[in-house]
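User: Could you write out the 3D structure of this protein bound to zinc ion? I've included everything you need below.
Assistant: Certainly. Input first, then the structure.
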Amino acid sequence: MLNREELKEIAKMRGDGAYFVSLYLNVNPITNVKDNYGIHVKNMLKQTTEQLSKPVLKRISADLEKIESYLLSNKRIFKKGLALLSSQESKFWKEFHLSVPLRNEIIVDQIPYIKPLFGVLDNYQRYAILLVGRDSARLFLVHLGEIEEYAEVHSENVPARHKKGGWFALSEKSYERHIDYHVSMHLKDVLKKLDSFLSGEYVGRLLIGGSEEALTKVRAMLSQSMADKVIGTFQADMSARSKDILDKAEPILMSFEEKREEEDVDEMVAKALKNENAVLGVEDVLNALQEGRIMKLVMLKDFKLSGKSCSQCGYLNSHDIASCPYCKGKMQKVKYIVDLIAQKAVEQGALVEVVDKNKKLKEAGNIGAFLRF
Ligand SMILES: [Zn+2]
């Protein structure tokens, strides 16, 4: 999973004169029916290599070979976007599989090119999940439907409850206070670590899981700025598996995202009705796409439509026309024009928001866009 810390480390890398090849590739199986990634890469390379000198080309030949064989043998694990960073000269290789489409790009430089990855971090909401108990805590990050455990905290000084009295020789009441003190210290420590993690990674949303008792206690200790980030809590066992944590968090995440999407759609529809840099429906979206005006595409997840695509320039049309109005090229049938619209929008630098369910968007034609101008 992507994280800012790691990207920052990569961004600092200097190969002492070594070259890096950074490849970004759309590997969505729907828009790459023949999964001809090799051809894409070769075409992209051709354009890049024309600008590169022979000595540089020679130095990156091992990278290109490695990338080519990687693309051939790893198709099964591809998602929608693939990023490969390679510098065989400095023995560096990194791969990122993303469930969002990326703009096809290949960059050869003496530093790794990672701007598109920072873009994915910034444009797709990430959520932190804190699982908290009386003497331990676990931290997870959720991004693009995936969960990853990031850190674990154990506080060793929290006395166990069953040692009532024990060698502390304290009365039951003061022993409870004694435990409380240590639990509070533990939670204080956890929240401090959490705070620095959230600000370091720019994570703006937080979920908290744990026993009812732990939840009450930790909520009472949250600073205002952290409390503002909490979008929900759930009960969970400290030893729960990541997958079970994600299952419990999912309903909270979904209703949160649904609300955000609703606000987006409302804004888009209102703007479109006022003719203010927004359009609704596939026809107007296609026109805006052709003019390169889309800033953010918003579409329903289950919206499917067939159409036609120009075999020469890639122009898309939802009607049954025989030749391209722009270049007279032959129009070919395409089964999934919506995916091609999304990919083309990404190529133009637009954001794509896929909305799960939304009545208003459905009534407005399943698709719409915020425009740049
Ligand atoms: Zn054409």
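The pocket of zinc ion is lined by residues 310, 312-313, 315, 324, 326-327, 329 (CB under 6 Å).
User: Perfect, thank you.
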